[in-house]
């Protein structure tokens, strides 16, 4: 049964059964703004997780049994730094348009329309080429996506309003008259109808 401890603090006590002989009760505590401040585990597993926040609701710290992770934000309330319990610092960078530029693992670049055009590993010195890249047309539709050197090409069917894959790096697809054609090799052409598959070079269905 949930226990109402104050007008702003609701402490439910659910019980979870873990395996044949384990059970855990979790008590939750909230601040006057109904933000979770503590989760206390009791029973076969005991731990306490605490959270603190700034005035606008950004999480400043997470405390798990005294092991603390801290978070910092800029004036636009964007996460800019995470400090781990081992004092390892991860920085996040943003541009003036709110696009994420780096997250400690990858760096991101955008075009003038704020569309993501490349993702590159941080400190990727030996091979500076992007891990993932994107290309768009003037309407903002994605034309190409390259991941690990494998390019997928897209074309828009404006009559249907759907983006269709032309090439996935292995197969090439042709669209028209409601049919989907897939070119697999120089010797074989597959034409997909709504209910049938036709092998063009052999006449098989």
Q: Summary?
A:
By secondary structure, this protein is mainly β.
Could you explain how this protein is built, in words?
The protein is mostly beta strands. It has a domain at 1-76. Helix content is 0%, strand content 56%. It contains no helices and 22 strands. It has strands at 3-4, 10-11, 15-18, 22-30, 36-43, 47-53, 59-64, 67-73, 79-83, 89-91, 93-94, 100-102, 106-110, 116-121, 132-136, 142-147, 150-157, 162-167, 172-176, 179-185, 188-192, 197-199. The strands form five sheets. Strands 3-4-5-6-7-8-9-10 form an eight-stranded antiparallel β-sheet, with no helix packed on it. A six-stranded antiparallel β-sheet has the order 13-14-15-16-17-18, with no helix packed on it. A hairpin with a 5-residue loop joins strand 8 and strand 9. The protein starts with a strand and ends in a 6-residue tail after the last strand. Residues 1-9 and 185-205 have low confidence and may be disordered.
Number of helices: 0
Distance between the termini: 63 Å
Beta strand count:
22
In spatial order, strands of the major sheet run 3-4-5-6-7-8-9-10
Low-confidence stretches: 1-9, 185-205
Assign the structural class, choosing from mainly alpha, mainly beta, alpha/beta, alpha+beta, or little secondary structure: mainly beta
Q: Major sheet, described briefly?
A: 8 strands, antiparallel
What order do the SSEs take from the amino end to the carboxyl end, as H and E? EEEEEEEEEEEEEEEEEEEEEE
Mean pLDDT: 77
Shape: elongated
CA gyration radius, whole angstroms? 27 Å
The share of residues in extended strands comes to over 45%
| Helix content bin | under 10%
